[in-house]
Amino acid sequence: FYVVDDIKAKVEKACPGVVSCADILAIAARDSTAMLGGPSWEVKLGRRDSTTASRAAANNSIPAPTFNISGLLLSFAAQGLSLEDLVALSGSHTIGLARCTSFRTHIYNDSNIDASFAKSLQRKCPKSGKDNVHQPLDFQTPTSFDNLYYHNLLKMKGLLHSDQELFNGASADCLVEEYAADTSAFFKAFAKSMIKMGDIKPLTGSSGEIRTNCRKVN
């Protein structure tokens, strides 16, 4: 979040009270994707910031790492997002890390995981303790935006239960195979779904506010 604070401070100095934190986040998501080798897209601008925040609402709306494919589809559908959006946006797990608490159940209890991969993770994430140990969501190229996340799923090496659910004998399998075989198809679908996600109930016009500090409402 300190990166957002830094961006906001510089934008406010140059152009006070005009650019929202919501727009900054949308642009930063696009730019960080492109900087790590991924696609770029035109970000729609003009969002305003909310005057409220709810951790509970966020946790209820964001799919959990324990979700199965039906739960993931329901969660995405509640936001107007499709199966195609689910599989494409999950590809963002080509970068980043997850805590031991997010994948512990998967590596100890699930059968749809490569045995050697599970054992290597069990050495780092015991059945109890070390909750804050982090592991890369894409163990091959954790700081490059590429399509190896999907290759991992084909080999049953998804870090999260919810990741591996995308390739587990259900409706998402064919899209995982397509994106694993064709990076450009993944990039095109990802950009399209990011624009679609950016259109979910934005505050515009006189709704909300332009925050002076992204950490709190005015």
From TrEMBL:
<protein>
    <recommendedName>
        <fullName>peroxidase</fullName>
        <ecNumber>1.11.1.7</ecNumber>
    </recommendedName>
</protein>
<dbReference type="Pfam" id="PF00141">
    <property type="entry name" value="peroxidase"/>
</dbReference>
<dbReference type="InterPro" id="IPR002016">
    <property type="entry name" value="Haem_peroxidase"/>
</dbReference>
<feature type="binding site">
    <location>
        <position position="141"/>
    </location>
    <ligand>
        <name>Ca(2+)</name>
    </ligand>
</feature>
<keyword id="KW-0325">Glycoprotein</keyword>
<feature type="binding site">
    <location>
        <position position="146"/>
    </location>
    <ligand>
        <name>Ca(2+)</name>
    </ligand>
</feature>
<comment type="function">
    <text>Removal of H(2)O(2), oxidation of toxic reductants, biosynthesis and degradation of lignin, suberization, auxin catabolism, response to environmental stresses such as wounding, pathogen attack and oxidative stress. These functions might be dependent on each isozyme/isoform in each plant tissue.</text>
</comment>
<feature type="binding site" description="axial binding residue">
    <location>
        <position position="93"/>
    </location>
    <ligand>
        <name>heme b</name>
    </ligand>
</feature>
<dbReference type="InterPro" id="IPR033905">
    <property type="entry name" value="Secretory_peroxidase"/>
</dbReference>
<keyword id="KW-0349">Heme</keyword>
<keyword id="KW-1015">Disulfide bond</keyword>
<feature type="binding site">
    <location>
        <position position="63"/>
    </location>
    <ligand>
        <name>substrate</name>
    </ligand>
</feature>
<keyword id="KW-0560">Oxidoreductase</keyword>
<dbReference type="GO" id="GO:0042744">
    <property type="term" value="P:hydrogen peroxide catabolic process"/>
</dbReference>
<dbReference type="InterPro" id="IPR000823">
    <property type="entry name" value="Peroxidase_pln"/>
</dbReference>
<keyword id="KW-0575">Peroxidase</keyword>
<keyword id="KW-0408">Iron</keyword>
<feature type="disulfide bond">
    <location>
        <begin position="100"/>
        <end position="125"/>
    </location>
</feature>
<keyword id="KW-0106">Calcium</keyword>
<feature type="domain" description="Plant heme peroxidase family profile">
    <location>
        <begin position="1"/>
        <end position="218"/>
    </location>
</feature>
<dbReference type="InterPro" id="IPR010255">
    <property type="entry name" value="Haem_peroxidase_sf"/>
</dbReference>
<dbReference type="GO" id="GO:0046872">
    <property type="term" value="F:metal ion binding"/>
</dbReference>
<dbReference type="GO" id="GO:0140825">
    <property type="term" value="F:lactoperoxidase activity"/>
</dbReference>
<comment type="similarity">
    <text>Belongs to the peroxidase family. Ascorbate peroxidase subfamily.</text>
</comment>
<feature type="binding site">
    <location>
        <position position="94"/>
    </location>
    <ligand>
        <name>Ca(2+)</name>
    </ligand>
</feature>
<feature type="disulfide bond">
    <location>
        <begin position="21"/>
        <end position="214"/>
    </location>
</feature>
<dbReference type="GO" id="GO:0020037">
    <property type="term" value="F:heme binding"/>
</dbReference>
<dbReference type="GO" id="GO:0006979">
    <property type="term" value="P:response to oxidative stress"/>
</dbReference>
<keyword id="KW-0479">Metal-binding</keyword>
<feature type="binding site">
    <location>
        <position position="138"/>
    </location>
    <ligand>
        <name>Ca(2+)</name>
    </ligand>
</feature>
<dbReference type="InterPro" id="IPR019793">
    <property type="entry name" value="Peroxidases_heam-ligand_BS"/>
</dbReference>
